[in-house]
Amino acid sequence: MQADSLPSLAQLQARVAELEARLAERDDTAQAHNRLLGELLDNSLANVFAADRSMRLIAINRMARETFAHYRGFVPQIGDYVPQFLLNQPDIMGRLAPVWPRVLAGEAFIDTITLGPPDSPRHYEIRYHPLHDAQQQVQGGYLFAYDITERVAEQERLRQAEEALRHSQKMEAVGQLTGGIAHDFNNLLGSLLGALELAEQRLGQQRLADTARMLDLGRSNALRAAALVQRLLAFSRQQTLLPQAVDVQRLVADMHDLIRSSTGPHIDFQDRTLAAQWSIRIDPQQLENALLNLCINARDAMPLGGTLRIGCENADLAAAEAKRLDLPTGQYLHISVEDTGMGMSSEVLQRVLEPFFTTKPLGQGTGLGLSMAYGFVRQSGGQLLLDSVTGQGTCVHLYLPRDRSAPATCHDEPATSATTPLQARGCRIMLVEDQPALRLVLVEVLTELGYQVQAFEGGHSALESLQEGPPPDLLITDVGLPGRVDGNQLAEAYQNLVEHAPVLLITGYDTADTMHFARPDRRTELLHKPFDLSTLGERIERLLAIAPHPR
């Protein structure tokens, strides 16, 4: 290499000066960048911490220092060992220690934590991130902790406001419900009283055949009142269904008189159901309730008269049709309830299945009928849809799954007049019922059946009798007895006193509060009010047959 090709000393010095200037500029830029980042972090509302793999603190912002100083009484410093300065802060360390390995494994995630005393807690949202070096190796981790206490408090205030709104809406709904139920009950009670008065007149005239018909009408209306109560119970909580194989053609045939008396002479009722259609597995009482409600809605849509048709046909749903109906593919019975009434607008049709929605005046409807029918059908594995054209009428479609498990049945056949069962001879029954009228009727019926009956008004007096005298062969008790001893407690005391002692619980409420006690393995059954006397007799016979006498 020639000497004149080498840079001179002056050139080298100039080159070094240029490089030093560039390096100084880059250093100034880096320092300015670091100052900017530091200022951004210090002005952040988040508490920022960073630590290396050994959990040595390598960064902390002003908000974090102020938070520790205010709530913990000390300020962590760069280089501090995190587990050491959190030694007396178990609430923080207890949450940090389990998650730190996840950070070192390269995971970024969000956690929430509540710190401080229960009367003044602070809520934090913590965002964890791994800290990488230039080669993308994890060298530690950092976190942003945001104080969300005000957000949590605002969410709680919003929840309370929503709860207050729901309560207000519920109270408004209760007002609508009261008027509608009072209207329905008055109709039922009016029919019941009228039937009893007519029966009394027919007895005086020695027209016994007509008397039986009037009594049947009264009994039918009493059962309708009981079904109305069940609708209320089903509205308050999801009602337990009692499905069985049902022949819809037979069920509708049994409803003819009820439908005609409910819709009136101005409605032409036509039964288009056919024999030999598929049976369905469903609660027959609830299906009857649903169909009757649909018929009453149809009647109200035809104030000047019209035609009401109930039909059914088998429907084998392929994939496309099942998807349209939001049902699994398979075989269904399609029941239709069609009227030639006023029809519904598209706006009403969109809301008609909402609970308490009604187009009837206040006091003339609960707005529960269609929503209850829809809920029942869906709970039974089916679908309910409506077609309606303003001025032409409405058709309600019910699709219910076919039953293949058993021959179709409908309602149980009415029991014949009771005779004294073999188990009744000499059997003693303790009856506990706080309603005097019902207690009197039950005593008369049980005595007529041949039982020896000891009746009590309350659980306390019945319990004293159990403890003092010989135990009865069977305990029949209302569940909701007033006083310190209810029916469940009395039944438990009886079965503790006499092993395998039979108990019949009776109640007018839903089953949720008694299902834990009424079990076959405890020789205990549950009977809902109102009940017919033949059912009562059958339950007593069954309990006495399966349980040994305690004597």
From TrEMBL:
Modified residues (4-aspartylphosphate): 478
Reaction catalysis annotation: ATP + protein L-histidine = ADP + protein N-phospho-L-histidine
Domain called Histidine kinase: residue spans: 180-404
Gene3D superfamilies cross-referenced by the UniProt entry: 1.10.287.130, 3.40.50.2300, Histidine kinase-like ATPase, C-terminal domain, PAS domain
MF-aspect GO terms: phosphorelay sensor kinase activity
Domain Response regulatory: 428-544
UniProt enzyme class: transferase
InterPro entries: CheY-like_superfamily, HATPase_C_sf, HATPase_dom, His_kinase_dom, HisK_dim/P_dom, HisK_dim/P_sf, PAS-like_dom_sf, PAS_4
Keywords: Kinase, Phosphoprotein, Transferase
Keyword Transit peptide: no
SMART domains linked to this entry: HATPase_c (SM00387), HisKA (SM00388), REC (SM00448)
The EC number(s) this enzyme carries: 2.7.13.3
Protein name listed in UniProt: histidine kinase
Organism taxonomic ancestry: Bacteria, Pseudomonadati, Pseudomonadota, Gammaproteobacteria, Pseudomonadales
